[in-house]
Design goal:
Helices cover 21% and strands 29% of the residues. With 573 residues, the chain is α/β, with parallel strands linked by helices. The strands form 7 sheets. It has a 6-stranded mixed β-sheet with strand order 5-4-3-2-1-14. Helix 9 links the parallel strand 15 and strand 16. The radius of gyration is 24 Å and the shape is elongated. Keywords: Hydrolase. Pfam families: CN_hydrolase. It comes from Ancylobacter moscoviensis. This is Amidohydrolase.
Length: 573
């Protein structure tokens, strides 16, 4: 067992054009943390200078080489207290005269490593170049440390790269804005990589930009272990690095369960070209027109009787259609056959035919999970059916502990073109892998349907923030502040319909919902079934205005377009 590691996050409001004041104050706060016993201390992005620079000329008096005078001053503190410090600052490369937004890890020996922000936010191109050092993990006597800078963490690939490289701790330095913090993406990156995340965010107002504060330490399970809301301050936590090194997500050893052979699209970007042109190339699989629709998810506990499960499916389908006005309903993983034993059914057998009949009787489309028996080979599958019959089938590619004693993994993704748009299917544990949703997004999916039977915690609440935000950004308490599936929808700019089993006695957590394609859109386009069995529905829109360019975020996929796949090759090894 490793010795507990005391760490600190520093929240600070720098002042533009007052670099010496900023550094002096940061040195004071870092020294305070070091004297309190912190061995790793993280400070905010661009904390030495402020952030909102308009061009290279304006920031030029404040950039420095690394190592340089600023890193030397922090190294003196690290040496005096035998600790490690992450400093956010603007760097100049003396060879090229390019500027970078960087995080620098400084220890008793001096500069240990530098991370140049690889995925720039809208502000960086005004003065800095995208980082060219990749995503590194630095071995230190206190653990394996990685750094990401602000916008980097919007992209699933950045944190995954350092997770696969063995990071115990991701030090994320930021100037985060426009939402209540600790931000859902921060929590998601810690959870999906089963590592600690130390978040150092700034707060306050700079050139009309309101920054969100919320600096924190997040555990591998997503728990907030220390947090600062508003104001300057230091927060502490003690880390057990063995928790990170167990690499368990939702109770599963996810890094051992990855399927890199299915991720070959990750080092590409299908959204570099106008997707309305790209997906019509050679006349092969053009995107369907899409439309406005109403989608529902159903939450219940299937039993071992197929006929009883089908009756319950029909009951909930009728409720979804008549009371919620839904046109498509998603049911949980193995909703047809039950969870306790496979009870597998053939893909062309009576159970699937009855599911089609339910869809036809109520003029619905239905996605539902089942245990499939294909000539003696068993799969954990989902089918998508409509009044016209079976549209498609998907076999779960990432098996969890409940699957391994009976099911074989599938070997291909399920992507189907429908009147609702391009639909991708995932099943339960698949959604724990950020690679899954990303591949479906790269294939042009507008909507992901996710039948699930997940036991672990999928949500975090928020007590509310004292940081003022412009309407309609919420600041009050929220029981569903973080939901893993909301993050999956937003990071891939898709609508996502997640139908989970609800069976508290067996540990199945429910929290089904339909989530929108933009996590920074408020009020959010989503509906969450927080308690009890039943159905809940939400309107979605996969259409496009009459334009040869994408006008809908699900077709434009901003967060997919901004990926930098030349960094991502290690994800497929």
């Amino acid at each position: 067992m490793t010795k507990p590691l005391k760490v600190a996050t520093v929240q600070f409001e720098p002042t533009m054009f007052e670099k010496e004041r900023n550094i002096t104050r940061l040195i004071e706060m870092v020294t305070e943390a070091a004297e309190a016993g912190a061995k790793l201390i993280v400070t905010p992005e661009m904390g030495t200078t402020g952030y909102c620079w308009v061009d290279r000329a304006e920031v030029a008096p404040f950039v420095e080489p690394i190592p340089g005078p600023t890193t030397d001053r922090f190294a003196d503190v690290a040496r005096a207290h035998d600790c490690y410090i992450v400093v956010g600052m603007p760097e100049v490369d003396p060879t090229t005269n390019l500027y970078y937004n960087v995080g620098v890890l400084v220890g008793p020996e001096g500069v240990v490593g530098t991370h140049r922000k690889t995925h720039p936010y809208i502000a960086e191109p005004k003065w800095s170049a995208p980082g060219d050092l990749g995503h590194q993990v630095f071995e230190t006597p206190i653990g394996r440390i990685a750094m990401l800078v602000c916008m980097d963490i919007h992209f699933v690939e950045t944190a995954r790269l350092v997770g696969l490289a063995g990071a115990d701790i991701i030090c994320h330095i930021s100037n985060w804005l426009a939402e209540r913090t600790p931000a859902p993406y921060w929590i998601t990156r810690a959870v999906e990589n089963s590592c600690y995340l130390i978040e150092a965010n700034r707060w306050g107002l700079e050139r009309t930009v309101q920054f969100s504060g919320g600096s924190c330490v997040i555990g591998p399970d997503g728990a907030i272990e220390a947090v600062i809301d508003a104001g300057d301050g230091v927060a502490y936590a003690e880390l057990d690095l063995e928790r990170a090194r167990a690499r368990r997500v939702l109770g599963e050893k996810v890094f051992e369960q990855r399927r890199p052979e299915l991720y070959m699209e990750l080092p590409t970007n299908t959204y570099l070209w106008n997707p309305l042109d790209f997906f019509t190339l050679y006349g092969h699989r053009p995107l369907p027109p899409g439309r406005r629709s109403r989608i529902a998810v159903a939450q219940f506990a299937p039993g071992g009787d197929v006929e009883a499960n089908l009756a319950r499916i029909e009951e909930l389908a009728v409720k979804a259609a008549r009371e919620e006005g839904a046109e498509l309903v998603v049911f949980p993983e193995r909703a047809v056959t039950g969870l306790d034993a496979p009870g597998a059914v053939p893909p062309d057998g009576a159970a699937v035919a009855k599911l089609v009949a339910i869809a036809a009787r109520h003029d619905l489309h239905i996605a539902a999970g089942l245990a499939e028996d294909d000539a003696g080979t068993l799969y954990n599958s989902a089918v998508l059916v409509g009044p016209q019959g079976v549209i498609g089938r998907y076999r779960k590619t990432h098996l969890d502990a409940t699957d391994h004693n009976w099911a074989q993994p599938g070997d291909e993704w399920g992507v189907f073109d429908t009147k609702f748009g391009r639909i991708g299917l995932l099943i339960g544990h698949d959604a724990a892998f950020p690679e899954s949703g990303r591949v479906l997004a790269l294939r042009g999916c507008d909507l992901i349907l996710a039948p699930a039977a997940l036991r672990s915690r999928l949500i975090n609440s928020h007590a509310g923030s004292a940081v003022a935000q412009n309407y309609p950004i919420p600041t009050g308490a929220d029981p569903h502040h973080w939901h893993l599936m909301r993050a999956r929808a937003g990071e891939n700019n898709v609508h996502l319909a997640f139908a989970n089993v609800l069976d508290p006695a067996a540990g199945y957590s429910g929290k089904s919902g339909v989530f929108g394609p933009d996590t920074f859109e408020f009020p959010r386009r989503e509906a969450i079934l927080g308690e009890g069995e039943g159905v809940i529905a939400c309107d979605i829109d996969t259409s496009n205005l009459d334009s040869r360019y994408p006008t809908n975020v699900v077709r434009r996929k901003d967060l997919v377009t901004m990926r930098l796949p030349h960094h991502y090759q290690p994800l497929i090894r």
